[in-house]
Design brief:
This protein is an alpha+beta fold. It has six helices and five strands; from the N terminus they run ααββααβααββ.
């Protein structure tokens, strides 16, 4: 019983520290000059507390079927540690396909892990493309955080996040 209490205490301390650092980040993010700095600072905070790396930030298109308008460096900003080749392959494979993680981010205010979305939508066949592509590049799970229906900040992890977050 004591070990459980110690584990809970440690988890609470980590969460409290993470929360404090994220609040500090939110209060100073406007002082950062480039998307690269914004994503690097955010990754430094999350990766030190959780098995979570920043994938990037995306400005969601105004029209729900205009996913091809997303352009790297203009409306999509990737963190430098995203597995090499993933974005290029994503852009090729995604053409004309349903993008469940981004569609949900556009229509929801709640953050979702990729595993939760997969369980909720239960895709079969070709509709699993986004999850299979992520696994190919070592991304076991992720967390999509919508921001006001116009942006999403996306994280990835080599571990399933449902029980961690």
């Amino acid at each position: 019983m004591v070990a459980l209490t110690l584990a809970e205490t440690a988890r609470h301390a980590i969460c409290s520290d993470l929360q404090t650092r994220l609040i500090g980040y939110a209060s100073r993010v406007e002082t950062l000059s480039t998307p690269t700095e914004v994503l690097a600072d955010l990754c430094a905070i999350t990766a030190s507390s959780l098995p979570l790396s920043v994938l990037g930030a995306v400005r969601l298109p105004l029209k729900s079927n205009d996913w091809e308008s997303i352009q790297l460096g203009k409306s999509m900003f990737l963190h430098r540690d995203v597995p090499k080749g993933w974005w290029e392959e994503y852009g090729t494979v995604a053409q004309g396909k349903f993008r469940p993680l981004l569609s949900l981010a556009k229509s929801s205010m709640a953050s979702q892990t990729w595993t939760e979305v997969r369980r909720m939508l239960a895709p079969i066949g070709i509709d699993q493309w986004v999850y299979e592509l992520a696994l190919k590049y070592g991304m076991r799970d992720g967390l999509t955080c919508p921001v006001g229906g116009r942006w999403a900040v996306i994280f990835w992890s080599r571990r399933e996040l449902s029980n961690i977050l």
